[in-house]
Amino acid sequence: MTTLGELFRSPGTEAAARLSGCKNYADARPREDAVFLPDWGLTLSCGRPVPEGVCRIGIRAHHVQLAGPGAENAFSCTAVKVVEDVFSTIVLLRPEGAAPEAPLLRMELDKDNWQAVPDKDRLTVSVPPEAILLLES
Predict the structure, then answer these.
(1) Is residue 78 within 8 Å of residue 122, measured between CB atoms?
(2) 133 to 89, 91, 102, 116, 126: CA distances (angstroms)
């Protein structure tokens, strides 16, 4: 039996990740300890070996972070839509170089952090390697 903590840390499939509340998904191709995401034109480090059976990744919206200098897995995005929620701000992002039909990347952050962003149209974000959910079909 899978515990709730295990489900959140390593759901294993997209269906399980959706049940756990994950909002971001992309097709993926394993690259040793990284994944290539063809729709977004990105390669992200996972910090661990990626099994051959991985075909999708999940990223929780709160794990997409504003990137500081030298942040691992940092990439530039355009803000497509901003939604003010009660306690947070949700920003829908299109990674630079993404295919037009590629899914948007959802970032959720504290309202004060969003207000402090100088350029709200073009952002550099990052995803910690350990936060990338490796999913098999």
Answers:
(1) yes
(2) 23, 20, 18, 29, 15
3-class secondary structure per residue, the chain: CCCHHHHHHCCCEHHHHHHCCCCEEEECEEECCEEEECCCCEEEECCCCCCCCEEEEEECHHHCEECCCCCCCEEEEEEEEEEECCCEEEEEEEECCCCCCCCCEEEEEEHHHHHCCCCCCEEEEECCHHHCEEEEC
Exposure string for 9-30, b = 16+ CB within 10 A, e = fewer: eebeebebbeeeebbbbbebeb
What order do you get walking across the sheet with 34-37 strand by strand? 29-31, 34-37, 42-45
Contact present, 87 and 112 (Cβ < 8 Å): no
Condensed to tens digits (0 to 9), the pLDDT of residues 61-105 reads 999 999 988 899 999 999 999 999 888 999 999 999 999 999 999
Counted residue by residue, the chain has a size of 137
- 96: Cα within 13 Å, side-chain hemisphere: 10
**Residue 92 near residue 81 (C-beta atoms within 8 A):** yes
